[in-house]
Design a protein that fits this description.
35% of the residues lie in helices and 19% in strands. With 179 residues, it is α/β, with parallel strands linked by helices.
Length: 179
């Protein structure tokens, strides 16, 4: 049943099953989430969204499209090509008091790099921004706990760990209720 599936995903992601949202794919969920967040939080000209060059397009394009639709600016945190790492400083350099959201991977789909999520989340929150973590390539390899990571929102794809080809999104209960 759906409730059993939510309970299983809640266990896997370390979240309340009531915050588990199923959809067609992680990318489709993120497209809907980005559009909704931009509208509900009143993003507009002067606002900023941060994406990273380490991320899969499924956690870049939805935020770029949503930002462009409302006239917000997209800022890029660049990974270090010599190490494949996403330094905290790269994210900090593009944060401002106008940053509304930071979209960051939990683990690169291409090279496996795992950014320092707690530090990135802390920096984003200090700037007043929300954080969406793409956990597609992390969920199969590590124990997850959205709250411990500090992420406001998190998405994954169960087919990456032998589940059905769907997307799962979760987040802070208060934020999801607002959206």
């Amino acid at each position: 049943t759906v409730l059993e599936a939510r309970a299983a995903m809640g266990d896997l992601l370390g979240v309340d099953p009531g915050t588990v949202i199923f959809g067609r794919s992680m990318t489709a969920n993120t497209m809907d989430l980005a559009r909704t967040l931009a509208r509900c939080h009143g993003w507009g000209p002067g606002d900023e969204v941060v994406v990273t060059s380490l991320d899969h397009d499924g956690n870049i394009r939805p935020w770029v499209i949503a930002a462009e639709a409302v006239g917000a600016t997209v800022r890029w945190a660049e990974m270090d090509p010599s190490t494949g790492e996403l330094p905290l400083e790269a994210v900090q350099q593009v944060l401002s008091d106008r940053t509304r959201l930071v979209a960051v991977t939990g683990a690169s789909n291409l090279i496996g790099t795992r950014p320092d999520l707690p530090a990135i989340v802390e920096a984003a929150h200090a700037a007043g921004a929300l954080v969406h973590v793409d956990a597609v390539h992390l969920a199969a390899h590590d124990t997850l706990d959205r709250e411990a990571l500090g992420a406001d929102l998190m998405s994954c794809s169960p087919y990456k760990f032998l589940g059905p080809h769907i997307g799962v999104t979760t987040g802070r209960a208060d934020l999801l209720e607002e959206l």
